[in-house]
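We keep the chain:
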Amino acid sequence: MAKKKNLKSKPLSKQEKIESLAKLGSNPKDTVITIPDEAIIDVPISGGFRKAIEDVLFYIMGPMTAEEIMESMGKIKIHFKDIPADKITQRDKAIWTIMSLQSEINFQAAAQKKTVLGDDPVKEKVTDLIYDLDPEGFIKENNERKSNVD
């Protein structure tokens, strides 16, 4: 795995974006530019954008039944281990992707001391949804969240 560097990302200026596009365009024709799987990319993300990502998760999960959500969360919880490929849906992968992105944003925000206490000390919306679908409290009991506020 690539070693993480302690870089501080910042939004690119219009000129920097133009220069980046020029670099990408200077490659030989018929080539594909990719990002290696082990590459770590720093991307500045605002709190507002993080909320938009959460809205995407709700959009994906909106038409799902409680049973479908629990089934998908169960697969995600075990990192799809021992789940046959034909039993992992595109929706499962999409939910995992969005939740992983949100988690990393949350971890980075905490590490950068960019979290604040809100007026509502209750769990985040997604966690509320998951806990509400788990009447026996198994998820809550096995996934106690730790505060990221000093």
Helices lie at 14-25, 47-61, 66-77, 90-111, 125-132, 138-142.
